[in-house]
Design a protein that fits this description.
The protein is mostly helical and about 400 residues long. It has twelve helices and no strands. The protein is about 75% helix and about 0% strand. Helix 2 runs antiparallel to helix 11, helix 5 packs antiparallel against helix 10 and helix 8 crosses helix 10. The N and C termini lie far apart (about 45 Å).
């Protein structure tokens, strides 16, 4: 019953932590764009944050399996609190600001793999629908944090430029209290007691069926999808502010259209939780990735606000599918005792994708124009689709592979 008592607090922590991070990211990117930082510095800022996140996720996800979830999360919240205070004191145009930004980038790598693994554990239920439900709540929570951060960030920025930073400190202060109220049940070696649920590939609650022979393949290809949508999202988060300034889009409307993109992400999560058609289905994989390519091309070719919003909506569908499917495949292993490590790898691939997309996009945008990072992302995502398609064509059909999947 420990998880049930903690669950509400953990989800609130997720909302407030993501709201705080996105308030900081919005403040930094918008301020830099308005003060002529240019696409290269914007890309470097995104790269610094994301590579810090990627490395810390891979390293500290496994650490939380041994030292405990709560302790790891506390360190992460303390680090982002310290980094945020530094960002409030130091001007964003100074190099020291980016040092504090590194601390903020490292912090999610301590918080999220441990938090995902904690939420993915249960002591009294044996249904993978429950696993999906907990992942859904986590995904809804962090996206709610993004929406709160982007909408309030834009409005607070108009009131005073450092308003988003002050708000983030308030959210983080609340999180410090909430994590201290959580109780961690431990067994031998300090790990939480965990009884893994049996696999359910039927989509029916409580009814387990034999796992498909290529389930590991989907786990690996899911990381490629994560890489692709992370590259795409990085150009939106870190480089789109330059486009917004060029087309004279006000800060509040800028925040709103990014928040609306998250609505499509949330809608995708809900569909994936309540319906099972997407599980181990290559058609859904390629359709969602194709939608992402179309969305990126719309942002590249147009400066019309409606078409840009449509493109962001399609990118949101890809983001929702890629994130939820990756978490589901990675947390649906009944024999795993390293859920923190697996969650860290998933988050790490996201960080690598965001770092690559923001840095390469910044360089390309500086050379050819502010829209070209989105074309680059579309090309990278298209190459990933080709690689995944060839993988499916050339793979060995495992024994017991369902006939319906071989069409």
């Amino acid at each position: 019953m420990i998880l049930k008592k903690n669950g509400f607090f953990l989800l609130i922590i997720t909302i407030l932590n993501d709201a705080a991070i996105n308030l900081i990211v919005f403040f930094l990117t918008r301020y830099m764009a308005e003060h002529g930082a240019g696409l290269i510095r914007l890309g470097i800022a995104g790269g610094i944050f994301s590579i810090s996140f990627a490395v810390s996720s891979i390293v500290f996800g496994g650490v939380s399996d041994k030292s405990g979830r709560k302790k790891t999360i506390i360190y992460g919240i303390a680090l982002i609190f310290f980094g945020t205070i530094g960002c409030l004191i130091v001007e964003p145009t100074r190099s020291l600001f980016f040092v504090f930004f590194v601390f903020i980038g490292i912090s999610p790598g301590l918080v999220y793999p441990a938090l995902i693994a904690w939420l993915g554990q249960d002591t009294d239920r044996f249904s993978n629908r429950a696993v999906s439900g907990r992942l859904l709540l986590f995904c809804l929570s962090w996206n709610a944090g993004v929406v709160i951060g982007m909408i309030t960030g834009g409005r607070l920025y108009l009131l005073r430029y450092d308003g988003p930073i002050i708000a983030s400190l308030i959210f983080l202060g609340i999180n410090c209290i909430l994590i201290l109220l959580c109780k961690e049940e431990t067994g031998k070696g300090g790990q939480e007691r965990y009884i893994a649920p049996p696999p359910d590939f039927s989509g029916q609650s409580g009814k387990a069926q034999k796992a498909p022979g290529d389930s590991d393949l989907y786990k690996r290809l899911g990381r490629l999808t994560a890489l692709g949508f992370a590259v795409s999202m990085s150009t939106i988060l870190y480089l789109f502010p330059q486009v917004a300034v060029e087309i004279e889009l006000p800060a509040d409307k800028h925040g709103i259209i990014i928040a609306l993109m998250r609505v499509s992400v949330i809608g995708t999560y809900l569909i994936m939780h309540f319906y099972s058609f997407w599980k181990y289905n290559p058609a859904v994989l390629f359709i969602t990735e194709g939608a992402g390519v179309i969305g990126l091309l719309l942002v590249f070719f147009t400066r019309n606000l409606f078409l840009i919003s449509t493109g962001l909506f399609l990118i949101g569908i890809l983001s929702g599918y890629g994130y939820f499917a990756g978490l589901y495949y990675g947390n649906n292993d009944p024999n795993s005792s390293c859920m923190g490590r697996d969650s860290g790898l998933h988050q790490g691939f996201l960080g690598i994708g965001v770092a690559a997309g923001s840095v390469m996009g910044g360089l390309i945008g500086k050379q050819f124009g502010s829209g070209y990072p989105f074309l680059l992302s579309a090309i990278i995502l298209s190459l990933i689709i080709i690689i995944q398609g060839l993988t499916f064509i050339l793979r060995k059909k495992p024994a017991g592979f369902p006939q319906a999947w071989s069409r």
